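Postdoc handover notes: sequence design on the structure in folder B. Input tokens:
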């Protein structure tokens, strides 16, 4: 099985190596990650796509759950510097014998970051479907799931696009809900792509739990029409209440999204500044308390001004966590747990443990921000 995968990569290398446009640059660069292997002729591009693949995995696993350390075969991503496809599309995904998944990108200057995210998610979900549901499963994966999960990664890198999507949705009639759920993979348009992103947002507005959202997404990957289950979920608990249609629910949720800016994500740098403000000592100093840092704050845990400030910050975390960039979400949650430990005031070792977790998560988020900003800039996606 591994030999077939390697031969597939070798065949691509030979195909490109004998092309008159690239024969002078024959050395293929490769890089391997948890679930992706990337091959191309430019090392920086290969590394960028691999980094993006890791971001795709983090975002997908937030909704689909963690997967094994690796699938039996990684998804092969090739960056073609020549157009070897008949229709000059941005990417093509193919399923090789044995369940090997390959995504070929036309690696050119006008390839958009959105198309790159979508192709990576397309390949990942195909491999996910094969692993969980069998070799024939990729052809039944619903298009809305691919678009919805690709949007999670895209928004984590370009949070400002949400405002544009909101304006587009307000100025255009989004697809009727049933057609969105049943759209074939080949039927992609701006309104369908935008609607798929807001489908997940609508479930969050309607107070669906993370597990509920995950179940709907996994069902879509498995090829099921989730309309019956979703219709049942949105009904009122009051037996006397009139039945709610999917389109009525969809319109109500979108109206709420339009009226509240909660889903306009902060940028990476904006999210970091917000966390730094929430963890600074300035407010405590102004209140007449002088802790040196978060570690020292424990000594003042019973001071009334400290408790009021911490309670206010916890409220800000609860109200603002949905706007923080996904790369910083774990950090915000850790800060909230730290403040909860402070207010409980029972065990110092538990507070120190929470503080260590917050500092570690913050360092991870900052490193991720710096890495992603660097690779985006180097790859020309400023």
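Designed sequence:
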């Amino acid at each position: 099985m591994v030999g077939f995968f390697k031969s597939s990569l070798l065949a691509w290398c030979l195909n490109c190596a004998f092309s008159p446009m690239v024969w002078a640059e024959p050395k293929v660069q490769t890089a391997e990650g948890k679930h992706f292997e990337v091959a191309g002729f430019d090392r920086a591009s290969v590394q960028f796509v691999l980094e993006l693949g890791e971001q795709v995995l983090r975002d997908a696993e937030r909704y689909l759950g963690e997967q094994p350390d690796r699938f039996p075969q990684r998804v092969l991503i090739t960056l073609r510097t020549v157009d070897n496809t008949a229709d000059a599309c941005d990417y093509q995904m193919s399923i090789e014998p044995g369940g090997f998944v390959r995504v070929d990108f036309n690696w050119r200057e006008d390839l958009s970051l959105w198309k790159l995210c979508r192709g990576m998610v397309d390949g990942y979900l195909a491999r996910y479907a094969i692993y969980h549901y069998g070799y024939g499963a990729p052809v039944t994966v619903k298009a809305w799931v691919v678009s919805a999960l690709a949007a999670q990664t895209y928004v984590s890198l370009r949070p400002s696009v949400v405002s544009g999507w909101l304006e587009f949705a307000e100025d255009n009639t989004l697809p009727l809900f049933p057609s969105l759920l049943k759209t074939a993979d080949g039927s992609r348009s701006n309104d369908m792509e935008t609607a798929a992103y807001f489908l997940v947002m609508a479930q969050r507005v309607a107070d669906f739990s993370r597990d509920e959202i995950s179940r709907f997404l996994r069902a879509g990957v498995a090829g099921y029409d989730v309309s019956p289950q979703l219709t049942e979920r949105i009904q009122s608990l009051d037996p006397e209440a009139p039945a709610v249609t999917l389109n009525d629910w969809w319109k109500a949720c979108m109206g709420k999204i339009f009226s509240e800016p909660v889903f306009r994500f902060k940028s990476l740098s904006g999210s970091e500044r917000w966390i730094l403000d929430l963890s600074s000592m300035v407010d405590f100093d102004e209140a007449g308390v002088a802790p040196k840092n978060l570690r020292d704050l424990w000594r003042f845990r019973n001071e009334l001004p400290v408790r009021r400030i911490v309670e206010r910050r916890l409220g800000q975390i609860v109200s603002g966590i949905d706007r923080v960039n996904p790369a910083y979400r774990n950090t915000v949650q850790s800060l909230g747990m730290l403040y909860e430990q402070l207010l409980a005031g029972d065990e110092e070792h538990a507070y120190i443990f929470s503080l260590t977790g917050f500092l570690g998560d913050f360092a991870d988020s900052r490193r991720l921000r710096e890495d992603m900003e660097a690779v985006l800039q180097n790859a020309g996606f400023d």
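Context for whoever picks this up: The beta strands are 29-32, 36-40, 75-80, 91-96, 100-106. Don't rerun without checking with the PI first.
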